[in-house]
Specification:
The protein is α+β, with helices and mostly antiparallel strands. The protein has 2 helices and 3 strands, in the order αββαβ. The chain has helices at 6-9, 31-39, and strands spanning 18-21, 24-25, 47-49. β1 and β2 form a beta hairpin. The relative contact order is 0.23. Its main location: cytoplasm.
Length: 50
């Protein structure tokens, strides 16, 4: 988590496990696919954490 980033401002912590991005299960996503899904969010992004 980069200090000052949107993730840090949203109180995400290192070690949090993202299990869904905008309601889409991340089990079969590659790291790159997950990154692209997050980067392509226009305004709101919903992450489900474990």
């Amino acid at each position: 988590i980069t200090p000052g980033s949107k993730a840090a401002q949203s109180q995400l912590s290192q070690g949090d496990l993202v299990v869904a991005i905008d309601g889409i299960n991340t089990d079969t996503m590659t790291h790159l696919e997950a990154q692209n899904k997050i980067k392509s969010a226009s305004y709101n992004l919903s992450l489900t954490l474990q």
